[in-house]
Design brief:
- By secondary structure, the protein is of the alpha+beta class.
- A hairpin with a 2-residue loop joins strand 3 (48-59) and strand 4.
- It is built from four helices and seven strands; from the N terminus they run βααβββαβαββ.
- The protein has one domain (2-137): Aminopeptidase.
- It binds coenzyme A.
- Residues 67-70, 75-81, 100, 104, 106-107, 109-110, 113 line the site of coenzyme A.
Length: 139
């Protein structure tokens, strides 16, 4: 598996990994903005994009993983771990944050497996499904 910075030529492959884009025009626009802002990284296996992640610094100027998605058929094979590990290596701040819904047990399990610590809860973003924040101190 290789982790590469995404370029414009990866956009269609990223969209096909991310099912939400099928009915969410905003998500498609965000993907184009993330890629053109040099914030997007793709995991590639046998020349196929199998997942992507977005690293931004808009959260209190700290590194923040604002998106992480692995193609459904490729999950539980270490792709999510590889993407997050890569972001940890290139992150320009000493702390890396991310968040996920309370209902998202796979992401919480991934955070636990990678030794991320809970960093707080924000209510009222999605109705009835609080956002759990995580962080890791980087070396
Ligand atoms: C969350 C997500 C990115 C995980 O990616 P992944 O490639 O499947 O994760 P990995 O294979 O690296 O998993 C590493 C470890 O995390 C834990 N884990 C991951 N998914 C899990 C699940 N569905 N159930 C229980 N534990 C899970 C396990 O400890 C796993 O190790 P193991 O497979 O050896 O048991 C993936 O499920 C996904 O794309 N979900 C939809 C999008 C999403 O919710 N993104 C996060 C919020 S932006």
């Amino acid at each position: 598996m290789k982790i590469n910075k995404a370029t414009e030529s990866d956009i269609e492959a990223i969209i096909s990994v991310d099912h939400l884009t099928a009915h969410d025009e905003n998500r498609r626009r965000h993907i184009c903005e993330w890629v053109s802002g040099d914030s997007t990284f793709v995991a590639v296996v046998d020349n196929v994009v199998v997942g992507y992640a977005v690293l931004e610094y808009t959260f209190f100027s700290q590194g923040f993983i604002s998106m992480l998605i692995v193609a459904e058929a490729r999950r539980r094979k270490g792709v999510g771990t590889a993407l997050v590990s890569h972001l940890e290596e290139i992150c320009k701040t000493g702390k890396l944050f991310t968040s996920t819904n309370k209902s998202n047990e796979p992401m919480q399990a991934l955070m636990q497996s990678m030794s991320y610590e809970p960093s707080g809860i924000v209510h009222n973003l999605d109705d009835g499904d609080p956002e759990l924040f995580y962080f890791k101190k980087l070396n």
